[in-house]
TrEMBL record:
Organism: Scleropages formosus
Name of the protein: ADAMTS-like protein 2-like
Entry's localization field: Secreted
A Gene Ontology molecular function term of the record: metalloendopeptidase activity
PANTHER family per UniProt: ADAMTS A DISINTEGRIN AND METALLOPROTEASE WITH THROMBOSPONDIN MOTIFS PROTEASE, LONELY HEART, ISOFORM A
């Protein structure tokens, strides 16, 4: 071997024409390897344990954890002091592989079967179990330890209301000719309560008033309403009304003698009444 001017050996084959050492040639497509800093030799990667399991049941995963430590003191240091290229790859292993308890998976309620009034709605209830980060449908027997939620329920969005004819047509307002008759029509809810007419479809409202034709007027009995007073303050009494025989003429109606209507049944002009029962009371005479 030959020494250079600084007393260093020159390896054969690495000398130039003057006898000095030259660096090895670098190929065009070769990247020079950086030199590892001296500090990396003082630290090393060491496995310190495992991560927590990713699931408490149903098969999870956990991974190895590596820390950068000082080779002499074995104390953890910042990871930047270790060579990242030499850091071992984390390995995965299964954990908590026992099955998770089954549970009832409850879906949303469907729309009510009716837009008003009592109806019903349904929902889907499935027995499910988690395994390997997947939720699986299982037989309902696995959920037997749990009370099964209801799958059907009653519902009512609002009260249904409809028109009801409450009475028959009344008598015609006139004994002859064209008059009117009426009946009671009310809007009734599905629970039987009378509600405002606006709660029912006004376009579907039955008529509560119509004309009636009693035939041509000639002679007929006409009568007034019953008087509001009873003849007795208590106990049986009577009420009266006027009953007259009228005949239609070109000028209108005129009163004629009762016998003119004798062929027609005469309406009663008197009826019984009782405001209240009579109790015992004191009566007295004048002073002598």
């Amino acid at each position: 071997n030959t020494l250079d001017d600084q007393d260093r050996y020159i390896q054969p084959g690495n000398q130039n024409q003057d006898g000095y050492e030259q660096p090895p040639p670098v190929l065009d497509n070769q990247v020079p390897v950086p030199q590892t800093p001296q500090q990396h030799h003082e630290y090393n990667w060491k496995m310190s344990g495992m991560t927590d399991c990713s699931a408490s049941c149903g098969r999870g995963s956990r991974y190895t954890v590596f820390l950068c430590i000082h080779k002499v003191t074995l104390q953890p240091v910042t990871e930047s002091l270790c060579d990242s290229a030499r850091r071992p790859s984390s390995t995965e292993e299964p954990c908590n592989t026992e099955p998770c308890p089954a549970f009832w998976d409850i879906g949303e309620w469907s729309e009510c079967s009716r837009t008003c009034g009592p109806g019903h709605q349904q929902r889907q209830v499935l027995c499910r179990q988690v395994y390997a980060n997947r939720t699986l449908n299982v037989h309902i027997s696995r959920c037997r330890h749990l009370e099964r939620p209801e799958t059907m329920s009653t519902c009512q969005l609002k009260i249904c209301s409809e028109w009801q004819i409450r009475t028959e047509w009344s008598a015609c307002s006139v004994p002859c000719g064209v008059g009117q008759r009426s009946r009671e029509v009310r809007c009734v809810s599905n629970v039987g309560d009378i509600v405002a007419d606006e709660d029912c479809n006004m376009k579907m409202r039955p008529s509560d008033l119509e004309n009636c034709d009693m035939g041509p007027c000639t002679k007929s009995w006409f009568f007034t309403d019953w008087g509001s007073q009873c003849s007795m303050e208590c106990g049986p009494g009577h009420q009266q009304r006027d009953v007259v025989c009228l005949m239609k003429t070109e000028e209108g109606f005129s009163v004629v003698p009762p016998y003119e209507c004798s062929s027609l049944e005469r309406p009663p002009s008197q009826q019984s009444c009782q405001l209240k029962a009579c109790g015992a009371r004191w009566y007295h005479t004048d002073w002598s």
